[in-house]
Design brief:
Elements: E1 21-24, H1 36-44, H2 50-58, E2 63-64, E3 67-68, E4 80-83, E5 98-102, E6 106-111, H3 128-136, E7 142-143, E8 152-158, H4 164-172, E9 177-185, E10 194-201, E11 210-212, E12 218-228, E13 231-238, H5 245-252, E14 281-289, E15 296-300
Parallel strand pairs: 8-14
Antiparallel strand pairs: 1-4, 2-3, 2-4, 5-6, 6-8, 7-8, 9-13, 9-14, 10-11, 10-12, 12-13, 14-15
Length: 321
């Protein structure tokens, strides 16, 4: 059996909690690149720009296993190259990332609204992962799952790379009980509790997911916890984890979550520094059996939704509920 080659440790430290980019120089049977610099210029001319690539080479920003690369080195397929990309300025999210639990294997974070879980798109340094790596001095921290940027609440991060697969397996194997809380309109005509099953499709490049006919791939249980005038506080229990699942299912019941910018209609994107209307959805509970030591865990978010700030945590469900 052939062993998988291990990726070498990067010679560059993280910057702002972000790992360096790693590039492996590809085979070049036609001899298109005489030097490392020729390849880097060809590869990144479109994304970074030829002048910026040249400047990064002059500044010693590209590094190989043996040290700084100036670009004049002879091209050799398989060579590993690391560098840090230039980060575009990001609007700081003015809310702290809480830590509900921390031990030698996991960190349970209480992520605020508007903060992405992991670097993606235009959100790189202003993410829960980058902040936690910096603030907790845990450079190898990795997420076991992802929470939507607009959703607040509990997210599980893994401290040691060798443990990540075990905790990711909890989520892919549906062995984590996840409980969410939402605020939406109250409608006496909607019979609750109800279990919603549907087929949800999310296309790349399209902001909103949609339901369509076919074999269901998403299941959520919706319960009304409390009513105040025209608003209700709901407990949402997803059995599956499709993108925007709870938001889609609540909207399908005619109860779109308060301040949802996508459902029932896609609204114009607010200004980057507009944090005034958070989506009224939070991941309130994570419950699972630890895959490493077998201990049962139940964690509760300490955050509260703005439209129900004094809500008491709902009682845990029993087997017959």
């Amino acid at each position: 059996m052939r062993r998988r080659s291990r990726t070498p440790a990067p010679p560059l430290a993280q910057r702002d909690g972000i790992d360096p980019v790693r590039v492996r120089l590809p085979a070049d049977p036609e001899g298109a690149w005489a030097t490392v610099g020729d390849h880097l210029m060809s590869r990144f001319e479109g994304a970074i720009g030829a002048e910026r690539v040249a400047a990064m080479l002059r500044e010693g920003r590209f590094v190989g296993a043996e040290g700084v690369l100036r670009g004049t080195e002879a091209y050799q397929a398989g060579t590993q190259v690391w560098f840090h990309r230039d980060f575009a300025p990001e609007t700081p999210v003015p809310f702290e990332v809480g830590v509900v639990h921390r031990d030698e294997r996991i960190v349970i974070a209480d992520k605020p609204h508007f903060l992405a879980t992991t670097p993606r798109g235009r959100h790189i340094t202003e993410t829960a992962l980058a902040r936690l790596r910096r603030d907790l001095a845990l450079p190898t921290l990795q997420p076991a799952h992802r929470l939507d940027r607009l959703t607040a609440g509990l997210a599980l991060f893994v401290v040691r790379p060798e443990d990540r697969g075990a905790y990711q397996g909890l989520f892919s194997g549906r062995r984590v009980r996840k409980e969410y809380e939402a605020v939406a309109a109250y409608d006496p005509g909607v019979a609750l509790p109800v279990t919603v099953r549907s087929r949800i499709v999310k296309e790349r490049g399209v902001m909103a997911a949609r339901e369509e006919a076919g074999e269901p791939n998403a299941e959520s249980r919706i319960e009304l916890l409390e009513r105040r005038g025209g608003l209700g506080r709901y407990r949402l229990l997803p059995a599956t984890g499709r993108t925007h699942q709870l938001r889609v299912h609540m909207n399908g019941l005619g109860l779109p979550i308060l301040n949802d910018p996508l459902y029932p209609a896609v609204l114009p994107e607010p200004a980057p520094d507009d944090f005034g209307a958070p989506l009224q959805l939070r991941a309130a509970v994570l419950e699972f059996t630890d895959p490493v030591d077998g201990r049962p865990h139940r964690f509760e978010s300490e955050l509260r939704l703005a439209h129900w700030p004094d809500a008491q945590p709902p009682a845990p469900q029993t087997a017959d509920q």
